[in-house]
Specification:
By secondary structure, this protein is mainly α. It contains eight helices and no strands. It is globular.
């Protein structure tokens, strides 16, 4: 792989994984489902969320190609918007108080609900699809690869990578954070994890904006 493409891949992959570490609606949904249901059905939640992410990634892939063919000015504007959105996510993480992470410490349910793999899949898919931040986040990440030097095959590979990481990360949550002791320790660390990820996402966002403006 070319050094410049490796740099693009690492930038997008790191920013994507850091965003996964930051507890959001999908994260809480997976933990709740893992506590209430058996592992086989809960995998449906992980697959549904990953499928919703794959849909948004595909839309961004198509959009990136269309925007790139439109004009350099449009490309620069989109990059600035994408960078600013990452900075916004960073500020949200840095401003969050400790009390906002209390919803992660979910208690065991003594009356688990009956469900099916298909039902859990649709719940996960709707959770991922109805969260507008997911689309905006992927659009922000793909502004990094808005360049003629990056081919469609590389973008497709990046999309497959990110979809796989989402699925594997949610599986990890299912099998690890569904345990009370592990979840309790993560809840205590989540506040600090969010601060670190916020700083790094902010740096990446600023770098994207700076890169876009320097090309004017």
């Amino acid at each position: 792989m070319d050094i410049s493409l490796l740099g693009v891949f690492l930038t997008v992959a790191v920013a994507h994984f850091l965003a996964l570490l930051s507890p959001g609606p999908d994260f809480v949904l997976v933990v709740k489902s893992a506590i209430k249901n058996d592992s086989k059905n809960v995998i449906g939640i992980a697959l549904g969320i990953a499928s919703a992410n794959a849909l948004y990634i595909a839309l961004c892939l198509v959009g990136v190609g269309s925007i790139l063919a439109t004009s350099v000015t449009t490309m620069i504007i989109l990059k600035v918007i994408g960078g600013v959105f990452l900075i916004y996510l960073a500020l949200q993480a840095l401003r969050a108080s400790k009390s906002s992470y209390s919803n992660l410490d979910i208690q065991e349910d003594t009356n688990p609900t009956e469900t099916t793999f298909i039902k859990e899949f649709f719940i996960g898919f709707l959770s991922g699809a109805l969260n507008p931040k997911n689309l905006l986040f992927y659009l922000s990440l793909f502004t990094v690869v808005l360049t003629p030097d990056v081919g469609f095959a590389f973008k497709l590979g990046l999309g497959i990578w990110m979809t796989s990481v989402v699925f594997l990360w949610d599986l990890s949550i299912i099998f690890l954070l569904s345990r009370p002791k592990v979840r309790s320790k993560f809840t205590k660390a989540a506040f600090y994890i969010d601060k670190v990820t916020g700083v790094i996402l902010g740096v990446i966002g600023i770098a994207i904006v700076k890169s876009a403006l320097s090309k004017q």
